[in-house]
Design brief:
Elements: H1 6-20, E1 24-25, E2 30-31, E3 38-44, E4 48-53, H2 63-74, E5 82-87, H3 100-106
Parallel strand pairs: 4-5
Antiparallel strand pairs: 1-2, 3-4
Organism: Carnobacterium viridans
Protein name: Metal-sulfur cluster biosynthetic enzyme
Pfam family, one: FeS_assembly_P
């Protein structure tokens, strides 16, 4: 069932973010949400989801691993039948995008 109201859309985006918290950056051992790598979630027609994210460095050798983990995590969301991951490089990622939890875990002030 496609979400129709603004509340349903926000609730579904919240479920997606929760699922994405299961995707761990293998180098930093922290999830991509707390690292601030997820820039946008767009819900399209016919239950298609586009996830825009960046990586901590351009040319990251783990991009395929993270993308595959995202696709696996999205399978837990029954309302989403297809997912597309788009890597974006603007705005550039920096540590200011990280959550307090991620900063503490990595010892960043």
């Amino acid at each position: 069932m496609e979400p129709t109201s603004e509340n349903q859309i926000e609730e579904l985006k919240g479920c997606i973010m929760t699922a994405l918290e299961q995707v761990i950056d293998p180098e930093l051992n922290i999830d991509i949400v707390n690292l601030g790598l997820v820039y946008a979630i767009e819900l399209m027609d016919e239950n298609h989801c586009v996830i825009k994210l960046t990586l901590t460095t351009m040319g990251c050798p783990l991009a395929d691993t993270i993308t595959n983990d995202i696709m696996t995590a999205m399978q837990s969301i029954p309302e989403i039948t297809s997912t597309e991951v788009k890597l974006v490089w603007y705005p550039a990622w920096d540590t200011s995008r990280m959550s307090r939890y991620a900063r503490i875990a990595l010892g960043i002030r």
